[in-house]
Write a structure and sequence with these properties.
717 residues, 28 strands, alpha+beta, 14 helices, 8-stranded antiparallel beta sheet, 25% helix
Length: 717
């Protein structure tokens, strides 16, 4: 593979650090259970490290020396697979490359040069007395984790056992050393296994360069099962690549407790407390059921369905709240957020056609839908009541306080009104419809009943939540059905669910209004004409959740951008591609959120942004509760997978060319290309016009972008 096509070369990014801790370096590589929240700029693994969940281990190991106390300023180069740190001073120089392997080894490859006139003395240091037993080239020990059911066993292996006491370099002398620490669950992962993993790096015959090359190659292998996308727009190309990295970075496989199957975390960083061995504050490294369907929408295009299926299997095996899919740690079944996991499961099935998996999980999805009806339903209609404003994942949306004129203190429960929420209602409709579709696939006789339920939910959304005068969908008072006239971003969700017809023309245009959702950094979580709108996430002049807190009264969120863009694309298709140009603009703006300072050389996505300026408001980079890959496949390339075949319906986004390749549908490979007649083909091997290839054979072509439907029989699949 050419060097330029490797992920490390595409995404290398110089220094990546926490905004709130400028010296705290970020690491791209993550293990199935072990990762770095951040690294200190010292040789080894000092900083904050987590295992399965937030545990805040301050030190795995580091190398100390007698000549220099500080390695700053140093040069760093961030790669997805590893981190390079280089320091040159008057007394010594150090080049270190380090990574965390998928099998949970923290590996440091160091080259030391003594530039002084005295001996350089190096020693290995570990945390306290955690690693007290020494045998040959390795130490072994354990971290006690009080707040989880597991303790962490570890083995530290070195290329030269002199590092345990004193490793000496004479003036002018250079030396390569490798230190590797393997970690596992005490009582589950035997010391011999951990030693074997650690020694495979530290005691191997490989040079430091070869160890890093091997890690880069192994890291690259996961991406060989992704589709590829190339176009005339470098912004889309780079964002596509970064989004696949985002999934890999947040991929976890604890194989323990409630998380027995693979899953994607919402993020690897965590808010608030960095206190050693503390879990205080909020962490994203767990199964958060709100983000599961967002992960699946992108991960369903990965060639192996195991990563999309894993979260569903975890939730099926550990139901909570009367049978709802819920948030999970390895030890705890937590609360449930509103989400569309059942619908996402159907979308996953359409790509991979895994009947066995669907048959296994369908009863749990039925229980989830029933639980929503029982816990959030009501006797008057088929809409869902939200009793806790946090449970849709959009806390402090102003509509909850509309009926009390947006008081200054939103934490006063007397000023808070339960609502029939548009987002929860749309999720419920999609989940119910998804169950109906999966019943049809598996021959379940309840398909008709779930289709009837979905239709009832749809009609109540359209009849009750729509306001003809303002052309928008609103949340409702939970008792009176009075509309809360706040234009929340979720008001566009009915377009995303594709339940609209010409009667609802005018809704999507609110996105384009500069007095509503067309801000400098679109789309705000509430229209700017709302009295409680706050671009930076305060509430009526007060930061009720701190400077970086989650307050959905104005900031821009990738989460809802992905859904709003999906809605915009679908509405454009429904209305004869009327809004293709607007979709292209907002897609690029969404893409730029993935790069610090809009610099393509600095990839990094966070949780939410100032909607007026685009300033990142949170400090958790590589944040993962949105989707993007699906937007490019479904709307730029135009590929939608249906039960009976495929639909091609691309939006005209102004591209001179694009090539979507290596898409696997039920084991069959699909390639879609487009090239304008006036554009040279020298840069890309694509035919003129819009073309579909199946297993390398040209199946369909047209001289321009167009819509067509093809059955599986026509595709010869």
């Amino acid at each position: 593979m050419p060097a330029g096509s490797r992920l490390d070369e595409k995404l290398r990014a110089g220094k990546k650090a926490l905004r709130t801790l400028p010296g705290a370096l970020l690491l791209g590589s993550t293990g199935a259970r072990l990762w770095a929240d951040y690294l200190d700029p010292v040789p080894g693994f000092s900083g904050r490290f987590d295992f399965i969940h937030k545990v805040n281990i301050p030190l795995l190991f580091k190398i100390t020396n007698n000549l220099e106390e500080s390695f700053e300023p140093c040069q760093t180069e961030w790669f997805p697979s590893h981190l390079l740190m280089a320091y040159t001073g008057n007394r010594l120089s150090l080049v270190e490359r380090k990574f965390i392997s998928w099998n949970d080894c923290a590996v440091s490859c160091q080259t030391w040069t003594n530039r002084s006139s005295e001996e350089l003395v190096l020693r290995l240091e570990t945390y306290g007395d955690a690693f007290s037993e020494c045998k040959g080239n390795y130490l072994h020990g354990m971290f006690n984790i009080e707040h989880y059911s597991f303790d962490i066993a570890g083995v530290v292996s070195v290329s030269d056992p002199a590092l345990f006491e004193e490793f000496r370099l004479k003036p002018g002398e250079s030396k390569d050393i490798i230190v590797s620490a393997a970690f596992g669950i005490s009582g589950q992962d035997h010391t011999d296994l951990l030693r074997e993993r650690a020694s495979a790096y530290a005691e191997s015959v490989y040079t430091t360069d070869e160890v890093i090359e091997n890690q880069s190659n192994e890291y690259q292998i996961w991406f060989e099962k992704t589709p590829t996308f190339t176009s005339s727009d470098p912004v889309l190309n780079k964002t596509w690549t970064y989004r696949w990295f985002l999934l890999r970075h947040n991929l976890a496989d604890p194989q323990y407790g409630h998380l027995s199957y693979p899953l994607f975390y919402e993020g690897r960083s965590h808010k608030k407390s960095k206190k050693p061995f503390s879990k205080g504050g909020w962490e994203f490294s767990k199964l958060i059921n709100l983000s599961v369907p967002l992960h699946i929408m992108d991960a369903r295009w990965y060639h192996d369905p195991v990563y999309g299926e894993g979260p569903l299997r975890n939730m099926k095996n550990a139901p909570g709240e009367d049978g709802m899919f819920s948030c999970l740690t390895v030890d705890t079944i937590m609360h449930s957020f509103a989400n569309f996991s059942c619908w996402a499961a159907y979308q996953l099935y359409l790509v991979h056609r895994n009947i066995e998996m669907i048959s296994d999980i369908l009863p749990a999805m039925k229980l989830n839908v029933s639980a929503w009806n029982r816990v959030n339903g009501n006797d008057q209609d088929h809409l869902m009541i939200e009793y806790k404003h946090t449970r849709t994942g959009k806390e402090y949306q102003p509509s909850y306080w509309y009926f009390h004129q947006f008081p200054k203190n939103p934490k006063d429960k007397e000023t808070y009104t339960h609502l029939k929420r548009v987002d929860r209602a749309v999720y419920h409709y999609l989940n119910t419809l998804g169950v109906a579709k999966l019943c049809e696939v598996t021959g379940d006789p309840e398909a008709e009943e779930y289709n009837r339920q979905a239709e009832n939910i749809k009609q109540d959304i359209l009849d009750k939540m729509w306001n003809e005068d303002t052309k928008f969908f609103y949340d409702l008072h939970y008792q009176t059905d009075e509309k809360a006239f706040v234009k929340n971003i979720v008001g566009f969700y009915p377009g995303w669910a594709e339940i609209l017809d010409e009667r609802f023309n005018g809704m999507i245009e609110h996105l384009f209004n500069e007095q509503e959702f067309h801000t400098k950094c679109p789309f705000p979580s509430v229209s700017i004409d709302c009295p409680a709108y706050s671009k930076e996430g305060g509430w009526m002049g007060h930061f009720v959740k701190g400077r970086n807190g989650c307050v959905w009264d104005g900031p821009t969120w990738p989460y809802t951008n992905s859904i709003a863009l999906d809605a915009l694309a679908k509405e454009s298709k429904r209305r004869n591609h009327q809004f293709d140009r607007q979709f292209a603009y907002y897609l690029r703006e969404y893409s730029f959120l993935h790069f610090m300072q809009r610099d393509l050389n600095q990839p990094g996505l966070v949780e939410h942004y100032n909607s007026a300026t685009g300033e990142p408001l949170s400090d958790e980079q590589e944040y993962n509760h949105s989707y993007y890959i699906d937007l490019l496949i479904s709307h730029v390339a135009g590929l939608s997978i249906e039960k009976e075949g495929i639909i091609l319906d691309p939006l005209n986004t102004g591209l001179d060319y694009f090539c979507l390749d290596r898409v696997k549908v039920a084991g069959t490979e699909i390639r879609i290309t487009y090239r304008k007649p006036s554009v040279s083909s020298d840069l890309l091997n694509v035919e003129e016009g819009y073309c579909l290839y199946v297993n390398g054979k040209l199946i369909f072509s047209n001289h321009t972008l167009c819509r067509t439907e093809l059955t599986w029989k026509e595709l010869a699949l």
